[in-house]
Amino acid sequence: MKNIFNQLHLEEILNRIDKLSPISKPQWGKMDVSQMLAHCSSFQDIAMGLSFPARGWLGILIGNFVKPIFYNDKPLAQNMSTIPDILIVDEKEFETEKEILKQKIITFQNNGPEKCTTHPHPFFGKLTSEQWGKGIYKHLDHHLKQFGV
């Protein structure tokens, strides 16, 4: 499984982000490309310990049992539900969101596993830094595939 803490995997993700354009269209889902970038940026905030969405009852009930879907080799399902706090519905500016996301990904990788949040994921609960690294890569990969890159 690829991991965002690996330099080659980081570079791959950044190159794929650079292939997006303001007119990139989703192959599934409701977000436009700028909203997707803002969504991924908000997810980075959770992994970096900058945002702490509350755990929902379903996550508390089953999150620990299903959390391998966050960091295993199987692709995430299309149209999978998201954390309500990071569902982006307002209009966003493409270039701004693209640069913010890239900087957050670089910062996360540069900070290394030891600076990963110890706060539980809002659905899956407690994750190791390795699980976060794999999950961040998988989440970004999912959304980049959503937009054909």
Short synopsis of the structure:
By secondary structure, the protein is mainly α. The protein has helices at residues 7-18, 33-47, 57-66, 68-71, 94-111, 129-146. Helix 1 (7-18) packs antiparallel against helix 5, helix 2 packs parallel to helix 5 and helix 2 packs antiparallel against helix 6.
Which SSEs are present, and which pair or pack?
Layout (H helix, E strand, L loop, with lengths): L6 H12 L14 H15 L9 H10 L1 H4 L22 H18 L17 H18 L3
Helix pairs in contact: 1-5, 1-6, 2-5, 2-6
Can you describe this structure?
The chain is an all-alpha fold. The protein has one domain (7-16, 28-146). 52% of the residues lie in helices and 0% in strands. It contains six helices and no strands.
Number of helices: 6
User: What class would the helix/strand composition place it in?
Assistant: mainly alpha
Order of helices and strands: HHHHHH
Q: What is the overall silhouette?
A: globular
Mean pLDDT: 96
Low-confidence stretches: none
Number of strands: 0
Query: Can you summarize the main beta sheet?
Result: none
Euclidean distance between termini CA atoms: 19 Å
Q: Number of folding domains?
A: 1
- Please give the radius of gyration in angstroms: 14 Å
Range of strand content: under 5%
**Helical content class:** 40-55%
Organism: Bacillus inaquosorum KCTC 13429
Protein name: DUF1569 domain-containing protein
InterPro entries: DinB/YfiT-like, DUF1569
